[in-house]
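Hi, here's the filled form for the chain we discussed.

Project: internal
Contact: R.S.
Residues: 250
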Amino acid sequence: MGRTLPIYRVRAENIAVESENKIHDDQVAAKYGFRGGLVPGVTVYGYMTVPIVEMAPEWIERGSMQVRLIEPFYDGEEVVVRAEAREDGSIVVTAQREDGTVCARGSASIRDAALPAPARLSEHPLPAMEQRAAPSSENIIPGELLGTVVEALDLTGWRPYTERVLQYSNDILARNFRLGPWIHTASEIENWAVAREGDRLSARGRVLERFDRKGHEFVVVDVTIVEGERLIQRVRHTAIYKPRMTDAPR
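And the returned structure, exactly as it came back:
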């Protein structure tokens, strides 16, 4: 038998209304069949980690999580996060709307502290903002290194630490390509150490895969986030870089 963790409830907030990614804008999102601007996937992930971190704080530095974003949350909706600790040590977690619709699913675990960290990816020059190329099947090439993003970690405000760190995996896509509206769909996260306020984190990435599915164009990237010699996080990050347009609201 598993152990049900306390339910976490939070009001969804679209913190990216003014961002370059216009899938968070109500009018643009409507062109892709959504009822409004999407609450960012990294924000939903942050909500989902709250009961995990409360039960097992060590997860922040030696935990992993696979999260799949199925349906969007919209600004102002209540998010109901349900989590259950299983006998095998895993934690299953869902983020639901008030009506029970499951919008995201995740599975988390805590690894043996003795396991060695994976290799860090190499740094690579970052293109200037005005020189970023529009993504396409011709320039999203598996194995190609992405330009490294280096920024200080800002932990001011109420947003969870977990959300702030995963944001670097979004940023490496947005800083390497001149993206139109795009959608984060899944992440496989491994935590290896804790970063602190003001730490200069280096997000290094490479393209793992590019594919088409149901009219959408996807990219999968491998990201390592490093502070000095410490590996903070490794992520397999999946996004629709070119969603199909539709008139059907959802």
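Let me know if anything looks off before we file it.
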